[in-house]
Amino acid sequence: MKLLSSNKNPEIKRLRLLIQKSKARKKQGLFVIEGQREIEKALKGNYKLDSLFLKEGSEEEYFEFLQENNQIAQYVVSSSLFEQISIRSGSEKSLAIAYAKTHSISELEITHEALVLVIEAPEKPGNIGALYRTAVAADFDAVIIANPKTDFYNPNSIRSSLGCLFLLPTALASSEAAIDYLKQKEVLIAAAALVPGAQSYDAFEYPTPCALVVGTESTGLDQQWIEAAHQQLIIPMASAVDSLNLSVSAGILMYQARGNKINRKKH
Question: pTM for this one?
């Protein structure tokens, strides 16, 4: 493997550009993954790697991984340079450049028993990553990001998801296209919204296929989702608190939906 030790090396320049610039990621159809756990999850999610970069001194540790992925370009990066590039600064020893997927909603396939998380207009990469971790843990089947406001392959989304971003089929679409898709597939839409007539989250059955829709912490859901929903849901709270963190509230709803689905199968 070639040793890279200069900031001026073309591969290092490309790596830095893909880490720092959303425009470059979109133009090249590539993005960066940091950490062996995240890289392995990307491979499990059928992502293809373009190249792999290891911190100098970790070659033996990654021997089997390198052998299994010997069809891609592999580089060793000097320790000092790797520390400069690394997003996590010292905690990881590997970086990979991977090919992005298209995420067209027309390509999303769901079953009649599917639980789908819809995230409307998310802006914070950290929130997106946290939601994916919970969606994978709650055994959801797919995610739709409606009206996305940030780059799906933002390094902070990948980092906060611990690689779970790669494990669920994902569609990126306008809210209109997402609603049309769900109606076409006859998916029940349950929206988290503080509106008159909303039902307590633990009193709803979540019949499948079901799409659970959550909005931003600041503005909540767009009106078109509230109108499209078959049922609006609320999480009752003590009077001292008027809102919950998005990932916390979504987690409560996802686990309730998962529990109801499991109970139906038992009976």
Answer: 0.94
